[in-house]
Amino acid sequence: MFCKCGKKAVYHRKYEGTYLCKEHFIKSIERRAKHTLRKYGLGNNERLAIALSGGKDSSALLFFINKLFRNVRGIDFFALTIDEGIAGYRDKSILLAKRLCERLGIRHYIFSFKEEFGLTLDEKVKDRREYACTYCGVARRWLLNKKARELGATRLVTAHNLDDEVQSVIMDYLRGDLSRLSRAYKYAVMHKLFVQRVKPFKEIPEREIALYALLNGIEIQEEKCPYARGMRFVVKKFLNELEEESSGIKFSAYRTGVKISRVIATHLSKKVMYSCAKCNEPSVNRICKTCELWR
What's the count of helices (H) and strands (E) in the chain, helices before strands? Predict the structure, then answer.
């Protein structure tokens, strides 16, 4: 099949009924990401911390941010990587992250669970692997926020995509977590030590980001995280099957999630954000989840 410009198509976007060549596909991804970025109201004196794991999504994000802002005065950015300590997996992705930063000429900072908490993730969950995602996610978010702030970042840019966002909506709904649903789409900073998140890819499907990375010559890690199981894994599989049967269902679910979030937020009393009594980092409780699990 062919793109509207007459060139051979590299992608069939079923939910739009269009075929796109390499050039128009890349432009469409970047156009959508720019549209999302505008919603965050970036100013003229921004210092962006780009969360870089070395995976396809975060590598594509760094490539996009560099392309967009490398010659823009008033916007500085750097890459921030967290080494959780997953043998045979994270070491490979960090190598890819280093290569990409060297290729693009971007400053790269790496911090580890071992340095911060005294244990790698492998060591922490040696006898409780089923809880790995909980231990990892909580600590990684905590450390990203802390180090981004210490490095002077005004925003923390993450590579969450459409699939990630919809999965979170479904999981929060299944858990009955109205508080998370209500704040899922807010842009406001909730605590003075909280670095505001920015998600340029949140309205772009995961498979399109993967193709964007490939078409731009970005190395992609083939190995999957050995701990990638649990509810998110099941929900992801379920949503992918639905998308195959009904193209565009992920977009519909995302938009419905936004509407639900706004409705719940108007009826739910605002939660107070505390400073954790142990580490002083932002927390919805007196003691943050990271200190509960890791200290």
Answer: 12, 9
Helix or strand run (H / E) with residue 27? helix 22-38
CATH number at residue 55: 3.40.50.620
Phi, psi of 64 (to 5 degrees): -65, -45
**pLDDT digit string, tens, across residues 211-240:** 999 999 999 888 889 998 778 889 999 999
Per the structure, the complete domain to which residue 174 belongs is given by 32-269
Q: Measuring CA to CA, which residue among 116, 98, 107 is closest to residue 153? A: 107
* Cα–Cα distance, 30 to 25 (Å, whole number): 9
Q: What is the pLDDT of residues 29-56, one digit of tens each?
A: 999 999 999 999 998 899 999 999 999 9
Strand pairing category for 46-51 and 18-20: unpaired
CA 80/CA 48 separation, integer angstroms:
10
Nearest-5° Cα angle at 248, 170 to 188: 50
**What separation in angstroms does the CA of 199 have from each of 35, 91, 111, 162, 272?**
11, 25, 22, 10, 24
